[in-house]
Every structure is written in C-alpha cells, then in structure tokens.
Amino acid sequence: MSEYGVLGVRDVDFALDRVPPSPPLAALVERYWRVTWEMPAGRTASVVLLPTPSVNVVLDAGRLAIYGVTHDRFTYTFRGAGRVFGIKFRPAGFLPFLRRPIAGLFGRALPAEQLWGPDATELAVALQAEPSLEGLVALTERFLTARWPEPDPQVELVQRIVAALLHDREITRVEEVAVRFGIPMRTLQRMFARYVGVSPKWVLRRYRLHEAATRLAEDHDRPWAEVAAELGYFDQSHFIRDFTRAIGLTPVAYAQACRRRTAPLSA
C-alpha cells in the first residue's frame, strides 16, 4: 500500500516510526505508526499531511478516536514534548469492524467509545501509560484480535482494485478498472462508498498526487512535466491544477520549498 502522506521533508522536528502488523492481522491492518517530538520552550513546528483512503484509529493526548478519510490536507502542530500513536487500516479494512458504510465517516472523527464502548476507554488509558512502541503494538493487537470480525469477501476484492489503482500505471481512468474487474461503474461506485468512503476516481487521483509530491521532494531538479507524464497526466494544465489544489503549491514551488527544507506548507 501507499507509503506516502507526509508533505515536504520528513526528518525535521519529529520522528516517525512505522511497524507492520503481525500476519494474522495484515488482511485489515496496514501498519501501526508513532510520531514523537520534543520542541524547545517557546518554539512550535508543524507537519502537513495529505490523507490517504484509509481509516486511522489514533491516540492523541489520551483520547482514542476513529478518523475517516478527509478531502483536504491538514496541519498538525507540535508543541513541547509529546507523541501520537495510530493504527492505519487498509482501504476497506475498517468496514468489518464498523459494520456500516465508511462514507459515513468522511471528514469526521468518531470517539472510539461509540464503537467499542468502555473497552475503548480502558485501551486508551493502557496505551497512554505504555512507554515503548513494542508495548503499544502488543496492546493494540490483543485488543483487535479479541474483536476480530468475520471475513467479508468483498474486502479482498476492493483491496485488489485499490492495489491496481495504486500500482498500475496503465490505469488512467476509473472506467478501465471497471472493465478489468468486470464490475459495472454504478456497482463500483457504491462498493467504494461503502467500503472505502470515497470514490475510485478520488483514490486514483490522490495516489498519483501523493507519488508526484514524493518524487518532487526527493529529486528537486526533476522536470515536473516528466513526473506528470509518468503518472498518467497527459494534460499539463490539468496536472498543475490538481497538484496545486491538493498540495497548496505549484509543482515548481513545491520542489523549491523542499530543496530549502523549509516548505511553506499549510492546510
């Protein structure tokens, strides 16, 4: 699945740890992650994130919440010393837990207690008290395993479609996916609304923009038009418009900001 999400440079002001799930949980869970920081007194910093089509369950300041997919990039500000721990579910991976359309979570944060009751409060307290990343993962895996849902064959199908949208550069239009998998467009749209929370077109465009941003951040002198063509954007004005709307800067300005390692990004 996608490794992208953080815009600009990644190794300034905070540390990001990622841990894969144990094999029995890997069908629904993509990874566990932890962000830690320690800022000098009186100084703040921020990170800008471009969301992926995944639900995250996040512990932040002792509060455990379920975050649906959001449309726009957002900024998280660091102050003092702290950490945030999260579970990133695979696209479609959270529906078996939620048991209702993921589209209902779009742009929302749901207190975990609304899904798991007092057990979620107990988990939040235990996680908040656990100092190690290994301990955080172990607590989380025990919690999820005890509530592991019944298999849903549609989840695997949706994940195969999402993988095609992410990895197959020959796919430039959602209609091509519908033909490849033999699924009518209306059915495909309904399936994604229920299992992913956003449309397949949104997923395709977002993955391409994630990859474009990463390539420009890693290779500042790479011609943006070349990156656009490799990712299936044959209309350069269309690429500039989509990139600027999602990232907040033109491709050229974004690459220059990353070169300076002071990307002036905000939500």
Automatic annotation (TrEMBL):
User: Origin, by domain of life?
Assistant: Bacteria
Q: Which Pfam families match?
A: DUF6597, HTH_18
What is the official name of this protein in its record? AraC-type DNA-binding protein
Q: Which InterPro entries match?
A: AraC_XylS_family_regulators, DUF6597, Homeodomain-like_sf, HTH_AraC
Keyword Transport (UniProt) = no
Sorted keywords for this record are: DNA-binding, Transcription, Transcription regulation
Q: Which residues form the HTH araC/xylS-type domain?
A: 156-257
State whether keyword Transcription regulation applies.
yes
PANTHER family recorded for this chain? Answer: HTH-TYPE TRANSCRIPTIONAL ACTIVATOR RHAS-RELATED (PTHR46796)
Single GO MF descriptor: sequence-specific DNA binding
First and last residue of the signal peptide: none
